[in-house]
Amino acid sequence: MMKAITDIVLPIPKIYSGKIRELFEIDENRILIVTTDRISAFDCVLPTPIGEKGIILNQLSLFWFEKLKDICSNHLDIVDFGLFPQNLKSFRSILEGRSVIARKTRKILIECVVRGYLAGSGWKEYQSNGTICGIKLPGGLKESEKLPEPIFTPATKEEKGIHDQNISFEQMKAIVGEKIAEHIRYVSLELYKSASQYAEGRGIIIADTKFEFGITDGEIILIDEILTPDSSRFWDKSTYVCGKSQDSYDKQYVRNYLESIGWNKEPPVPELPVDVVEKTREKYRRIYNILTGRSSI
Q: What is the spatial distance between Cα 41 and Cα 250, in angstroms, rounded to a whole number?
C-alpha cells in the first residue's frame, strides 16, 4: 500500500495549509491544491491519516465537477499531472492523482449546506425546537426522515480549530449581501437536486452535503471539493430505515468511534486504531466506486 501523504514540501510558495488541503502559488492567477490523507473530525485534525484518502477525494470531486458543470462553473484549470509545470514533475509520487491547478478566487466565507434528510446537527436542533437554522419544519419528523423539500442551511466558514456556526439565511445575507446569498442558495439547491437524482439511480442517498464558492472575474464559481465523503453524508438506499441513524459511506464512522471512546472533542486528539483506519478507507473507496462506476481510483 502506498505511503500516506500528510505534509507537503514543494519548491513553490505555500500560501495556505487547511485541515486537509495544502495550497501553493503557481502564478498570480493560479494555485496548486494538494489533497492530503489527513482526516478531521469535530474540527480537529486527527494524528492518524487514512492512506489514499486524498486521491479518492480529489478524483471524486473531479467526477462531480465535470458532471455538474452545466449548473455551475468551477475553479479547475489543469487536472492532468502531465501538464503541470516542469518544476513539479519530480514530485509525481506526491502530487499525481491528488492535486489540481485551479484559478484563484475570492472565497465567499460561507459553508453552503443543503439537507435533504433530518440527520446530524440538524436532527439535534429539530429535537430541541422544531427548526434548522431558523427554518421551521413540520412536527413529528423522525431521525433520518426525508424532508418535504431540500433546505439550505448556511454556516460560517471558520479557521482550523474553530467550530463552524449554523446561521440563518438573514444572517448570511448580512455577511455576503442579498444578491450573492440568493444566487448561491439557488445554485446549491440545484446542485444537490441533480446530484441526488443521479446518486439514487446508483443506490445511494445523499442525506446532506456542503458547497463552497469563490468569485473570479465577476463570476461565482464552485471551489474546494464537492460531494465527497468528507463533505457529504452518503447512505445505502437498500438498507435505509427511517427513524434511526444510518450506516454511512463517509467519515461518520470515525466520528462514531471517537464518541464511543468518550473523547471530549478537544486536543489532544486520539490516534485511530488500525481496524478503524482500514474500515474508513474501505468506505471511501466503496462510495467512489459506486458513484463513479469505476473499479479503481
A: 11
